[in-house]
Each structure stands twice: as structure tokens, then as C-alpha cells.
């Protein structure tokens, strides 16, 4: 039976991500890899992570969704307000700019211009990622589904990227199980392991916080197996 492999919140931890794919013996011919967003920020190798994800999508048939950090990185490269910039750099953006610019000394204006000029393909890739993926048995999304929308596909784009408590703490209004990242599993049930609820599964292992990166293996409707690789460090 074909496997679906779901991974979320890589956050620049590309070495751990590659180790995880080796651990699950990922085979693009047999497996469907679904990545739930947040490829940049906090961890040390955002650029390398984006490039590897681009390779997986373009050469290995992976499905990559957009995360809130990916969107904010794209936004910051445009003309944004100072508050958006401040939040970006407070939440791991410095590491992202260093990864893309290869420099310890960061002049914001010059760095933006350099990234826009040299990495336009990367930025376009991130900007055009979808907000969700759906198959016969599951819905995959970065942050979650707003339970106040009976037609979840019509919810605001921001909810796909940012929603937390209203989704995590309430029952969904869909029949399929929702697989999500964004909210670290440790914040939900006190440990970094994948969190299973009746109608949703949280897989963010908090790798960039020094915990682990998780993979959820899905076979059919409800056959699950989990894998994890420990983080090499913490980049809060």
C-alpha cells in the first residue's frame, strides 16, 4: 500500500530533515511526501532547506504547502511596515537573511536587494505554494481549519497559516482527519511526539527549538506510524 509521509516545520534544519527521510526510507516512486510549511527562519540553513524542498517538489513529486514563516519572508522582501519587519527578525528572520546572504553583517536594504536579485526563483516558489492539500482520507494544512466555516476552503488565507487555539481546542466540522503543523506538539500535550486527537493530528516536533523533527506515515484511512530525528541544536 502506498504511503503518505507528512513532515512540517523544518525551519532551516535541513540536515535533520534529510536524516528523517533516510530513516523512513523515502522512495519517491512509492511514497507521497507532503510538507506542511515553514521551511525558513530560526534554523541555520533556510536557503538550503528551500532549495531541497524545491528539488523534492520538482524532481520527486512532493507536495509542499505554505507556512506563515514562508509568507512573512516573502512579505518582508517587499515593501512592508516596520512592525512586520520587526516580527520577522524577532522570530528567526536574522538566521534566514544570513543563510541567503552568506554574511554576518546585514544591511537590511542591501540584503533585500541581494536576495530579490539572486534568489527570485526561490521567492517565487515560496510565494506560490498552496495553502492546503486534500486526499481521500485526510486534509493537510500548515496551521489548521477555522471551525466557524462550514466550507473550510472559504476561510481566510490567514487561518491556513496562523490559526491556533480555535482549531486545536475545538472539534473540526470536516469528516476527514486534519494533519497540521504550526503549533508545536509540546505546547499541546507536553511532549514533542506527534499528537493524535479524534479528528486531527499535530506533527510539529519543534526541531528549531532543540527538540525533534517528526514524520507521520499514513497508510489508508487510519494506519499510522511515526518517526523522529533529534535536533542538533536550538535556534530560538
UniProtKB/TrEMBL annotation:
Give the CDD domains listed for this entry.
MPP_PPP_family
Could you tell me which Gene3D superfamilies the record lists for this protein? 3.60.21.10
Q: Which SUPFAM superfamilies match?
A: Metallo-dependent phosphatases (SSF56300)
Calcineurin-like phosphoesterase domain: residues covered? 3-193
Concerning Pfam families, the annotation shows: Metallophos (PF00149)
Write down what this protein is called.
Serine/threonine protein phosphatase
Q: Source species, please?
A: Paenibacillus phytorum
Q: What is the lineage of its organism?
A: Bacteria, Bacillati, Bacillota, Bacilli, Bacillales
Amino acid at each position: 500500500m502506498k504511503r503518505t509521509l507528512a513532515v512540517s516545520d523544518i525551519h532551516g534544519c535541513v540536515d535533520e530533515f534529510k536524516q528523517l527521510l533516510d530513516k523512513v526510507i523515502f522512495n519517491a516512486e512509492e511514497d507521497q511526501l507532503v510538507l506542511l510549511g515553514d521551511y525558513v527562519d530560526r534554523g541555520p540553513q533556510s536557503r538550503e532547506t528551500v532549495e531541497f524542498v524545491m528539488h523534492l517538489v520538482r524532481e520527486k513529486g512532493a507536495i509542499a504547502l505554505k507556512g506563515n514563516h514562508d509568507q512573512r519572508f516573502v512579505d518582508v522582501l517587499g515593501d512592508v511596515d516596520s512592525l512586520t519587519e520587526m516580527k520577522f527578525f524577532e522570530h528567526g528572520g536574522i538566521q534566514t537573511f544570513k543563510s541567503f546572504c552568506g554574511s554576518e553583517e546585514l544591511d537590511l536594504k542591501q540584503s533585500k536587494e541581494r536576495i530579490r536579485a539572486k534568489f527570485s526563483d526561490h521567492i517565487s516558489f515560496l510565494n506560490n505554494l498552496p495553502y492546503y492539500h486534500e486526499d481521500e482520507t485526510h486534509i493537510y494544512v500548515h496551521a489548521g481549519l477555522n471551525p466557524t466555516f462550514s466550507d473550510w476552503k472559504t476561510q481566510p488565507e490567514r487561518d491556513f497559516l496562523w490559526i491556533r487555539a480555535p482549531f486545536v481546542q475545538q472539534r473540526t466540522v470536516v469528516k476527514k482527519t486534519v494533519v497540521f503543523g504550526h503549533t508545536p506538539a509540546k505546547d499541546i500535550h507536553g511532549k514533542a511526539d506527534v499528537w493524535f486527537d479524534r479528528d486531527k493530528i499535530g506533527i510539529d516536533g519543534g526541531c528549531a527549538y532543540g527538540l525533534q523533527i517528526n514524520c507521520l506515515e499514513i497508510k489508508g484511512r487510519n494506519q499510522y506510524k511515526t518517526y523522529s530525528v533529534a535536533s542538533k541544536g536550538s535556534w530560538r
